[in-house]
What we know:
Blueprint: H1 5-30, H2 41-45, H3 53-71, H4 76-94, H5 115-138, H6 144-169
Helix pairs in contact: 1-3, 3-4, 4-5, 5-6
Amino acid sequence: MNSGVFPSIWRFFGLVAVQVLLLKQIGLSIDSAYFNVLLYPLFILLLPLQLSPNFMVLLGFAVGMAVDIFYASPGVHASAGAFSGFARSYIVGAFAPKGGYTSKEPVFTPAYVTWQTFIQGSAVFFFFHLFWFFSVDAFTFVFFNSIILKTMVSWGLTMVFVLLYAAMFNPKN
């Protein structure tokens, strides 16, 4: 089995556990509709760059479904995860170096791209993920102002956790 698979498997279980056991509990204790830190999409963002987009959609759906089981939100996280799996190749591709990614950059992390590129790429990725999540959650654009407000507040909080994760764990594969 490829040694690049094991970090992704551990990341899947670790991020789902942190999301469910820690971040969900913090959100419930604060009891705010605007405190939503969604860290599990990092699994999708940190998948190998050479992975097939179809497989990324499937893995995004799987991680979203795993979170949905514990959040009692049937399909909302799965929908956002599948969307993020689809959009990831376009977003990461927009931040690719001039010649494109090679096998020297196996994942989109600060270890292989600059910190600035990682922050910009992950900021765009998480904005689209959160906007899709809150749009599907509301299921109507009548609440567009609320969707945008929730997206912006959650995006700011989530980016703090993303940067802490990237600095603490410095993922290289």
